[in-house]
Amino acid sequence: MSRTSRAVAGLALGSFLLAGAWGCNWLIPGMILAGPPTEKVEPEFARLKGKKVLVLVWAPPAVLTNYPYARYDIAKYVGDALRSQIEEVTTVSARHVEDYVSKRSQGAADPEVVGRHFQADLVVYLELLRYRMRWPESPHLYRGDIHASVVVFDLNAAGGEPERYELSTASVLHPEGAPVSVHKTTEQKLRKETSEIFAERVALKFKAHRVEL
After folding, report:
1. Is the pTM here over 0.85, yes or no?
2. How far is CA 188 from the centre of its chain?
3. CA–CA dist 21, 24 (Å, integer)
4. Contact by Cβ (8 Å): 187, 142
5. Does domain 41-212 have CATH number 3.40.50?
6. In the chain, where the domains are located
7. Prior bond to 175 cis, omega within 30?
8. What is the pLDDT of residues 62-97, one digit of tens each?
9. What is the distance between the alpha carbons of residues 157 and 134, in angstroms, rounded to a whole number?
10. CA within 20 to 30 Å of 89's CA: 9, 141, 179, 191, which one?
11. What's the rounded Cα separation, in Å, for the pair 154 and 122?
């Protein structure tokens, strides 16, 4: 056999052995690039596009005593998330809403009253059922924990009376794995991170998106 023939035969044998080593796994690189399987999740309420939306947050007195800015922070972050996730959405300034609400009795405000005051089309009303940054069993540990109900009021419904749509609750536990020592972060940083994650989860209720299976 000539030197050229031997070289060709060697290349063919090498390709055969390489293919054997891979076996049926030659599709794996493509599968890895494609990522894990996902499924589409439809929005719970899909009528925010092109609307003027007011985010109104209620918090119990105990929460506001420990976290005076909780109501404002959540309204601001949710408003920011809605504008970034939903096309052509206008949101009422969270600062203006907070100034208006804080002047009312104990900060309690009716979604319809506040919404009409600011000439909003829709009110996204959140009740903070749980809001804390320290782990109850271990005060020296931080862990953001926010849980809230989510209700939408359509102020432009036919007939003049607002229509109420109750969505699923929104929750976040951050960090997910375990609480973190107070020596490794600050409460301000943790509160910001937790509020941002929570706001994104609220915003996803209003748009189609995909989740991993």
Report:
1. no
2. 19
3. 9
4. yes
5. yes
6. 3-35, 41-212
7. yes
8. 999 999 999 999 999 999 999 999 999 999 999 999
9. 42
10. 191
11. 5
